[in-house]
Amino acid sequence: MAKGIVIREAHFPGRAPIEAYGSGGFRFADMSHRGSLLCLPSGIHGWEPADPEALTAADFEKLLNEAARVEILLVGTGKDLRPLPAALRAALKAAGISSDPMSTGAAVRTYNVLLAENRAVAAALIAVD
């Protein structure tokens, strides 16, 4: 039997505030992650949207599978605020999720506050340098 490195999908099975962001990643729960994150009720997942500047409903499949447990989605769109495409907003609204795009820094801060208030919040955070 060959031994080697097993690459698993990045997943932290719990909810945790984001302690830091920048340099292309995030720090939370005494761990660090390079790349973007999807913070859901089921945990914090590594997330790589196909095109961070043109998000689609397909990028949010994991979130839509947990839609019953999420009321608010904060979308950290990078260094600058970018509006969400109409089709994505419609898909989220159809699932009963209110979406709020903002810069990644603002999304991290808002996520931490809403998480501390035990709100039904999720966050999609695009990594920034």
Q: How would you summarize the topology of this molecule?
A:
Elements: E1 11-12, E2 18-22, E3 25-28, E4 31-34, E5 36-40, E6 43-47, H1 61-65, E7 72-76, H2 86-94, E8 98-102, H3 104-116, E9 121-125
Q: Residue ranges: pLDDT <50 for 5 or more in a row?
A: none
Radius of gyration: 14 Å
User: What is the spatial order of strands in the main beta sheet?
Assistant: 1-6-5-9-7-8
The H-level CATH homologous superfamily, spelled out, is MTH938-like
- Structural shape: globular
What fraction of residues sit in β-strands? 25-35%
Q: State the share of residues found in helices, binned by percent.
A: 10-25%
Fill in the CATH topology: Hypothetical Protein Mth938, Chain: A
| Total number of distinct structural domains | 1
CATH 2nd-level architecture: 3-Layer(aba) Sandwich
Pfam family, one: DUF498
InterPro entries: MTH938-like_sf (IPR036748), NDUFAF3/AAMDC (IPR007523)
Keywords:
21% helix; three-stranded antiparallel beta sheet; single chain; 129 residues; six-stranded mixed beta sheet; Hypothetical Protein Mth938, Chain: A; 3 helices; alpha+beta
Describe the protein:
- With 129 residues, this protein is an alpha+beta fold.
- The chain has a single domain (11-125), classed as Hypothetical Protein Mth938, Chain: A, CATH 3.40.1230.
- Helix content is 21%, strand content 31%.
- The chain contains three helices and nine strands; from the N terminus they run ββββββαβαβαβ.
- The chain has helices at 61-65, 86-94, 104-116; strands spanning 11-12, 18-22, 25-28, 31-34, 36-40, 43-47, 72-76, 98-102, 121-125.
- The strands form two sheets. The chain has a six-stranded mixed β-sheet, sandwiched between helices. The protein has a three-stranded antiparallel β-sheet with strand order 2-3-4.
- α2 links the parallel β7 and β8.
- The longest helix is centred in the C-terminal third of the chain and has 13 residues, at 104-116.
- The model has no long low-confidence stretch (mean pLDDT 93).
